[in-house]
Specification:
The complex is a heterodimer. Chain A is mainly α. Chain A contains twelve helices and no strands. Chain A starts with a helix and ends in an 11-residue tail after the last helix. By secondary structure, chain B is of the alpha+beta class. Chain B has one domain (25-194): Lipid/polyisoprenoid-binding, YceI-like (Lipocalin, Beta Barrel). Chain B has helices spanning 2-23, 85-92, 172-175, and strands spanning 24-42, 47-52, 55-62, 70-76, 80-81, 104-114, 119-128, 131-147, 150-165, 180-194. In chain B, strand 3 (55-62) and strand 4 (70-76) form a beta hairpin. Classes of the chains: A mainly alpha, B alpha+beta. The A-B interface holds A 45-47, 50, 54-58, 100-101, 104, 110, 163-168, 217, 220-224, 282-283, 286, 288-290 and B 84-87, 89-90, 92-95, 98-103, 129-131, 170, 172-173, 175, 178-179.
Chain lengths: 290, 195
């Protein structure tokens, strides 16, 4: 429990403080710190990398490595390619994780949900990371991607655990807690009249990609994961795109409230996912593992 | 002279094969009379019991030379049960047997050693979740007999026991002893129909 929630929350706070006081938020060093922490939690929950990876759970850490490599590419390289590169990398991750299920040719409800999750993350995450930063960013803008990853990870963790996949639930819980720590520090800064730091494009990609690939694995393999809850869990990146676009005018004018309301709007599908997973949990809302 | 020796050797080898084939009987595992069970430590407390209901496979039994016998079997992961639905779901999930990705567990013998007329050691490759490890089972031939009600039906019954560690396979939660694991004791009783 400590390494799944408390430790990542504290480390997320440390990263946020580093970004506020020691390093520029877009610094590659900050991305490296995130990457190292991410790998630590992958290792802690999934075990060390296995050569060659056979099961999908053994492939996740390799996908994380690939994400880290891409996230460390210079911004001028990523630049306008973020959308197409993201879509290709997401599609490749889905095919690699799910090829045994795809090869089996069974199109049951779980597989349909997995395909929907793969498609929605493949669309949502690249669009979110491909958007250009505003010339004069709004108060909520630095929170949009973190809120999307936080919502996706948190709901994914609960759906995963209730769906009989504890390990991926722990991993998503760790990612959610890391980002929760980051958001907490920056929101306190906003309340104190400051401005939140934005993630670099590479870091946005890395965390969206890491959380989404784990969610895809849950959708593919967790035997009791609720299909509707899985699909809802994959929607926060798309909700974040909407909050930055058509829903932006719906946000309140009060400065400190804008990030909060934006976060809630982004989290609506995730909240629905959690409720769905709990209400229709196959064994009640008790944790698995008995 | 050399040709004559070669012919003699081939003739001897052929005769040996014929002799061996004469003693080797083929059996098909009778899924309705197969109990593939296991026990596994449950957390810091007791021992959990489980069973796979769906078993199929073939046995070749050479009574003249046990070492020429072989066995090949396959279990359906989705058929695992432990007398509690929620635990069964966990076992079928990606933290344990990972049924969606690897629907079967297989065993194929590579070596059979005779201990005495009724017992032997069967070593083979056990594949769980795509990972293959060598396992040795202590096997006992319990009986072979014609069915009293059907002269065309002959069955043999076997008992086997062995141990595996979940740490050898990609079973994250069993391997670290969280809830269930890591040591698993296997106990198999099955009947096989002579073909």
């Amino acid at each position: 429990m400590f390494t799944t929630t408390t430790l990542p929350l504290l480390l997320g706070i440390v990263l946020a403080l580093l970004a506020r006081f020691a390093l520029p938020p877009s610094s590659p060093a900050l991305t490296v710190f995130w990457a190292v922490l991410l790998l630590f939690f992958y290792w802690d929950t999934l075990g060390p990398p296995v050569v060659p990876p056979v099961a999908a759970s053994q492939k996740l850490i390799y996908l994380a490595f690939a994400g880290i490599v891409i996230s460390l590419l210079p911004e001028r390289v990523l630049g306008g390619r973020m959308g197409s590169l993201g879509a290709i990398v997401f599609a490749a991750a889905f095919l690699w994780l799910g090829w045994r299920r795809i090869a089996a040719g069974t199109l049951d409800l779980q597989m349909i949900a997995a395909l929907a999750v793969g498609l929605l993350t493949l669309v949502g995450a690249p669009i979110l990371t491909a958007r250009q930063a505003s010339q004069s960013p709004s108060m909520e803008e630095p929170f949009l991607t973190p809120a999307a990853v936080l919502a996706l990870s948190l709901s994914g963790a609960i759906v995963s655990v209730l769906g009989a996949s504890i390990v991926t639930g722990q991993l998503l819980g760790s990612v959610a807690a890391l980002i929760g720590g980051w958001c907490l520090v920056h929101y306190v800064a906003v309340l104190r009249g400051g401005v939140a730091a934005s993630w670099s494009k590479g870091l946005e990609f890395l965390l969206l990609y890491a959380a989404a690939t784990v969610l895809i694995q849950v959708a593919l393999l967790a035997p009791k994961a609720n299909p509707a809850a899985l699909i809802l869990s994959s929607l926060p990146p798309i909700a974040a795109v909407l909050v930055r676009g058509p829903l932006q005018n719906q946000l309140p004018g009060a400065r400190p409230l804008r990030p909060l309301v934006a976060g809630i709007l982004i989290a609506v599908p995730a909240m629905l996912a959690i409720v769905t997973a709990i209400v229709w949990a196959p064994h009640g809302a008790a944790l698995g593992f008995s | 002279m050399r040709t004559r020796n070669l012919i003699a050797a081939l003739a001897f080898a052929g005769a040996s094969m014929l002799e061996s084939a004469a003693y080797a009987d083929n059996y098909e595992i009778d899924g309705q009379h197969a109990w593939v069970t296991f026990t596994i430590k449950h957390g810091i407390y007791g021992i959990a019991h489980g069973q796979f209901d769906s078993v199929k496979g073939a046995i070749t039994l050479d009574k003249a030379d046990f070492t020429k016998s072989s066995v090949k079997a396959e279990l359906e992961v989705a058929s695992v049960h432990t007398a509690f639905d929620q635990r069964d779901s966990d076992l079928k999930g990606p933290d344990f047997f990972n049924a969606a990705e690897f629907p079967t567990i297989s065993f194929e013998s590579t070596k059979v050693e005779k201990v005495d007329d009724k017992t032997g050691k069967v070593t083979g490759n056990l594949t769980i979740s795509g990972v293959t490890k060598e396992v040795t089972l202590d096997v006992k031939l319990l009986n072979e007999a014609q069915a009293p009600w059907d002269a065309t039906l002959t069955k043999a019954a076997f008992s086997a026991t062995g141990k595996v560690s979940t740490a050898d396979f990609p079973m994250a939660k069993a391997a670290n002893g969280f809830g269930l694991g890591p040591e698993v004791v296997i106990a198999i009783d099955l009947e096989a129909v002579k073909k």
